[in-house]
C-alpha cells in the first residue's frame, strides 16, 4: 500500500524545505499520496469521514509540517481533533484503525539543532517537544510510531546572518526520500 503524506503548511508557496521535500516524493507517485490539508480544506473545515477513508486506503502515514510556536500548524491540529475519533482511532470498540500502522513525523524548524538541547536556547530537545504527538499516536492510537525526520535551521535567524545553503536543502530532500521509503 502507498504511504500517505499529510502535509500542513500555512504558506507552502513561500516554503523552502517543505516544498522541496514534497517535490522529491512526487517523483514516486506509485509509492506516495501527497495530501496537503490547506489545498483540500481552504476553509479549515475537515471532513472526518473523507479523511478516515483516505487513511484506511493507505499503509504508512507521514505527517509533514513546519514546527513553530512549539507545535504543528492549526489545520493539522484540527485534523487530529476531527479525524482521530473515539471508536475509529482509539477506544475499546473499534478504535483500531491506526493500530500497528507505521506513522512518523517529518518536521522542519527555523531553529538550529544546538538550540534544541537542555543546555541550549530553548532548554528542551525536539524529541521532548514532540512528545505529545508520540503519546497521541503511540499510546492512544497504538500506532507503530517511528522516529521523526527533521531539518533544522530552514529559515533566516532573527538578528543573525544565517540561512540554510542550497546543498543542505538538497541533501535533506534525498535523506527524506530514504526516510519515507523505509516506512513502506
Automatic annotation (TrEMBL):
It holds the Pfam family Flavodoxin_2. InterPro entries: Flavodoxin_fold (IPR003680), Flavoprotein-like_sf (IPR029039), KefG/KefF (IPR046980). Keywords: Oxidoreductase. The keyword Oxidoreductase applies. Residues 1-157 form the Flavodoxin-like fold domain. Gene3D superfamilies: 3.40.50.360. The keyword Oxidoreductase applies. GO terms for molecular function: electron transfer activity; FMN binding; NAD(P)H dehydrogenase (quinone) activity. This is Flavodoxin-like protein. The lineage of its organism: Bacteria, Bacillati, Bacillota, Negativicutes, Selenomonadales.
Amino acid at each position: 500500500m502507498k504511504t500517505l503524506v499529510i502535509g500542513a503548511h500555512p504558506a507552502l508557496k513561500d516554503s523552502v524545505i517543505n516544498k522541496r521535500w514534497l517535490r522529491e516524493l512526487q517523483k514516486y507517485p506509485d509509492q506516495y499520496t501527497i495530501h496537503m490539508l490547506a489545498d483540500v480544506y481552504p476553509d479549515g473545515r475537515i471532513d472526518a469521514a473523507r479523511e478516515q477513508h483516505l487513511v484506511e486506503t493507505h499503509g504508512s502515514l507521514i505527517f509533514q509540517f513546519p514546527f513553530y510556536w512549539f507545535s504543528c500548524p492549526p489545520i493539522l491540529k484540527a485534523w487530529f481533533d476531527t479525524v482521530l475519533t473515539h471508536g475509529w482511532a482509539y477506544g475499546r470498540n473499534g478504535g483500531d484503525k491506526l493500530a500497528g500502522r507505521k506513522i512518523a513525523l517529518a518536521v522542519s524548524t527555523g531553529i538550529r539543532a544546538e538550540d534544541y538541547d537542555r543546555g541550549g536556547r530553548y532548554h528542551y530537545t525536539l524529541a521532548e517537544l514532540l512528545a505529545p504527538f508520540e503519546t497521541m499516536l503511540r499510546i492512544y492510537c497504538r500506532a507503530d510510531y517511528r522516529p521523526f525526520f527533521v531539518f533544522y535551521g530552514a529559515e533566516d535567524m532573527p538578528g543573525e546572518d544565517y540561512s540554510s545553503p542550497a546543498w543542505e536543502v538538497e541533501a535533506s530532500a534525498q535523506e527524506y526520500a530514504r526516510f519515507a521509503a523505509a516506512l513502506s
